Amino acid sequence: MAELVYRPVIGAARTLFKALDLKIDTQGSENVPRTGGAVLVSNHISYLDFIFAGLGALPQKRLVRFMAKEAVFRHKIGGPLMRGMKHIPVDRKQGETAYAHALDSLRSGEVIGVFPEATISESFTLKSFKSGAARMAQEAGVPMIPVALWGTQRLWTKGKPRNFGRNHIPVTIRVGEPMDAPKDEYAGAITRRLRGRVQELLEAAQRAYPVRPKNAEDTWWVPAHLGGTAPTAAQVREAG
């Protein structure tokens, strides 16, 4: 079926990014398989992460179908676009329906995008991973593709206003090599290995990031362990 919505949305996003003069640095796109199913797994620090994680697969001409909370699909503008791009709504009370949908898509050769932290990390560090991505890869017999994003939190993240000015913000995307999900291995062990790989990619993306905070007020987007003023994971939990 022709992609009547997805490709125009990509074109619009690229036009916007060019207008904003974003500096997008992508490495590792060749790790996304050109054919067949795969589970693309990314960290989550921004409301726009699904766009940038999807960009990491575009050089291989793959369109990623992301699993997203069902509320997004109820938005009067975003909802029709999400459905038109064949993303998968997740109702947390009936998660088995979305899981079955994702499995069918994987078996039919689609790339399914998952944010295993489930919510945006306000500390900009990796939270614990849910095991769903590993279990899907196991059941469908497809590889997992680890991805790390950095800089997207500066555009639009939880608790901060959107920054869509022409501020030349860099965005770094790192795509890792495919990882197997053996059917005879415990999903929790696979998930721990997957999280470790995403952590390695995240640290590589942070090292490669070309700018540092301009002043003390601009340190909010840097994790505390890197000298920034973002809350620690413990502080986020206490505030919640």
Characterization of this structure:
It is a single chain. This protein is of the alpha/beta class and 240 residues long. The chain is built from seven helices and seven strands. The chain has a seven-stranded mixed β-sheet with strand order 1-7-6-2-5-3-4, sandwiched between helices. Helix 3 (78-84) links the parallel strand 3 (64-69) and strand 4. Helix 5 (132-140) packs across helix 6 (187-208). The longest helix is centred in the C-terminal third of the chain and has 22 residues, at 187-208. The radius of gyration is 17 Å and the shape is globular. The protein starts with 5 loop residues before the first helix and ends with a helix.
Give the strand content.
Answer: 15-25%
SSE sequence, one letter per element: HEEHEHEHEHEEHH
Number of strands: 7
Q: What does the main sheet amount to?
A: 7 strands, mixed
Give the N-to-C terminal Cα separation.
Answer: 44 Å
Q: How many H/I helices?
A: 7
List the uncertain runs.
none
Task: Give a brief description.
By secondary structure, this protein is an alpha/beta fold.
